[in-house]
Amino acid sequence: MSTRPATSGPVRTGPSGTVLIRADDVGVRHQGHAGFTPAAVSLTLSAGEVVLLLGPSGCGKSTFALTLNGLVPQSVPAELRGAVVVGPDHLDATTTPVGRLAEHVAMVFQDPDASVVTGSVLDEVCFGPENLLLAPDEILRRAEDALRRVGLWERRDDDPGILSGGGRQRLAVACALAQASPVLVLDEPTANLDPAGIEEFYATLTEVVADGDRAVLLVEHNLDACADLVTRVVALDRRGRVVLDGPARDILAGHADELAELGVWLPTATLAGRRLRDAGVLPPSSPLPLTPGELNALLTGEDADPEPWSETSSAPAAGIAGTPEPDAAPPVVQVDDLVVRRGGHGLTRRRREATGTVVLDRVSLRVRAGELHAVVGVNGAGKSTLLRAIAGVEPPPPGAVRVAGLDPARADLRDLASRVGYVFQNPEHQFVRHTVAEELAHALELRGLDRAGTDARVDDMLGRFGLRTHRAAHPFLLSGGQKRRLSVGTALIGGARILVLDEPTFGQDRERAAELLTLLDDLVAAGTAVVVATHDLQLVAEHATHVLVLAGGRVAAHGPAAQVIASGTLDDAGLRRPPLAEALHGTRWSGVTRLADLPGPDPAGHTEPDATALADPGTAGPPTAGVATLPEPDAARHPNPGARA
Amino acid sequence: MTATSPYARVERPRLLQRANPLAVAAAVAPGIVVAFTAPGPATPCALLVLATLAVAAGVRVPTRHRVLVFAGPVLFTLFASLTLGLWTPADDVAGTPLLLAAGPFEYRLGTWLAGLAISLRLGAVLALALVPGVASTGPDVVRAAVQNLRVPYRIGYTALASFRFVPRFSRELAQIRAAHRVRGTARGRGPLAAIRRGTGYLVPLLAGALRHAERVALAMDARAFGAHPARTERILLPFRGGDIVLVAVTWALIAAALWLPLSVPDVRPA
């Protein structure tokens, strides 16, 4: 490791420091692909380490993780060069059966649903040890120990399906522990979880690694959640070569610029600290913080007289967020006392509604053109139901909702679709045609638009969303980011000025999520009204003009984003304050929720850097209707807020 | 947890729930053949009653399943007897009492009895098939098959894991239908439009299913599934002496039911 440029100190290791896995120049070429991604990763994992593997989207982080227990190339067809050597017996991971390697390496995957194979929590934990042919007594002993460590022993008889997302990922950790493998590989374990689930998961993981007898390799985009836990960081470049390797703090704080350059997301606190240091607020010698708590300590240390939290949470906050209420404009979405019940029984609609449980309880909402309303709340708070009622996906009771002059309860779906576009969580669900161009033309053809007009609008849309070279491709064969853009394009092509998106960032990495939110920013700037449900509160803080907090089907708070975030309702609703707001709590900048609103080296520069950052001069056409043209390659540079400072 | 969970845990199991699942299945299997082939309606009727009594005595049926298990076969038999009888040629039942007449249409006692003769067989088969269905859980059937029938464990436990797909796919299908409705593909009525819609759902559903199956397979591999020629059976389900007795007694009862038609008079006039 001494050959790496970034290794500025000794790698922290556990009590024994035994090397448990060694990867030498590992490159992987998937079947049917031309290049090796990752290209060359060399890495050792020693007992007691928690190694965070960073890199831009598509650099092969997850693929590399799968080589450690032989899934690549044994279960996933691929060509592997280099070597992966596992355990004290120096097993070759390319030839030793995956089942044998499972004794040395355990894995937790992104989708909690995909790892459950049995009918009870206890059976689930026993599944691995049973496969290893251990004695029943030993299996039960391990299962109890593992379940107690993740806090699920009391729920051993439950069906894993009824656990929350966070609970199921804790169960996955227990399963890995029961395998007693000294290496634990976690591949984006929190990507499908809500904020409470993420916190729950990392609290459990922190306890598990405290013993220091294991090595953990973590692939994770949400650095705000895991920065505390990580001892060492390894960063890959876009092609999948190691460029930085060293103690977590040295790399994340000391090489923040290089990481931002790579397109890697940094902890929000680090980004904010960097900005403040460049602006001269923090001294140049000041260490960069990794967690909201550290930034807060730095700032309250600076400020002799921190302002109390309560005073800063009102008026100035709204001003900072820059969202004046355009009272003159009529709302394009108007929801009045919407009540939705579900699961009722009876023969008449009235009877069913009276007996069902209340999903939405007297929800009211006004959205005007040029506003982006984020709907937040824990799972089951009613977010999707509200969005579906607005777009008429599930018709609401008559009279409660008006969208661009129509009542979704009565309007023809075709009329409604031309005024309000709805984007589903999984873009694949809404694709109905066989090429990208047909997919875009679909709504226009249904409305009987002539051929020439349809082609012109499809061309325009393909250009705006960076899909021109994929015109004839099957929508299912696009990359994740392209599918998402196509789904937004199909929702808007009919001329809709209102866009409703249900958790469009779920299961996606921060880079994809930010790309989408930047696209929405541009739409909003061009006068589209956007309503979006999401779990990512820092994204909400950065992009939303308004926030609606739902708790148990009721509106807990609704107003300008900065005010709502500062008010503490998020905590009451079972959510977490976004990392920046938490870091700035009690400092001179209480109430600031967006990085761009902190003093920076270029105070005026934050108004439109997103569009310029995205526009790649090589591929960009002329921007249309205020919407930035996205570059064609999906792996293009993304607007990391860090790049602005 | 849905009412149809294949995993439901049993509190204080009764006789049939303690028995080896294979024994329960083997015990009722000949009954199903007999119900189809027995000469008169009395045998199926007896089998229906026997099966229902066996469940009542030998299985602790969850409250929400009781109507289905106990009333289901009987209600099915009665309903089917009314409709199946309509297929009987009118000449065959001409002499029996008239129950209902509407213009040229006549519904006679013989019509109903002819229907009942068929529906009793179907009802008996239903009742018999319900016995192993409610007495054994999915995991136990797999365990017993792997342990006693030498079914390869890779097949058995993979089948068990695939039960998990059902609720996931039904959720996904609901999402896809809503999405396609919004896209305006749900237009038109009748079977042709329904088929067109259905094929439209197929592509996204299959794409999602394949991806999910692949993930599950990777997760199972990573947990050493298939690492050894055998895996530990934590819960043993041997075929005990009691199981043999259970099978023998049940077969004897079924054989006894075969003799019943000799002592029951035929209602049809000669």
Automatic annotation (TrEMBL), chain A:
Residues 21-264, 333-577 form the ABC transporter domain. The keyword RNA-binding does not apply. Belongs to the ABC transporter superfamily. Keywords: ATP-binding, Nucleotide-binding, Transport. This is ABC transporter ATP-binding protein. Pfam families: ABC_tran. Gene3D superfamilies: P-loop containing nucleotide triphosphate hydrolases. CDD domains: ABC_cobalt_CbiO_domain1 (cd03225). Residues 281-330, 593-645 are annotated as: Disordered. GO terms for molecular function: ATP binding.
Automatic annotation (TrEMBL), chain B:
It is found in: Membrane. Its main location: membrane. The chain crosses the membrane at residues 21-38, 44-61, 68-89, 109-131, 244-262. The keyword Transmembrane applies. It holds the Pfam family CbiQ. It is a multi-pass membrane protein. The keyword DNA-binding does not apply. Keywords: Membrane, Transmembrane, Transmembrane helix. This is Energy-coupling factor transport system permease protein. It comes from Myceligenerans crystallogenes.
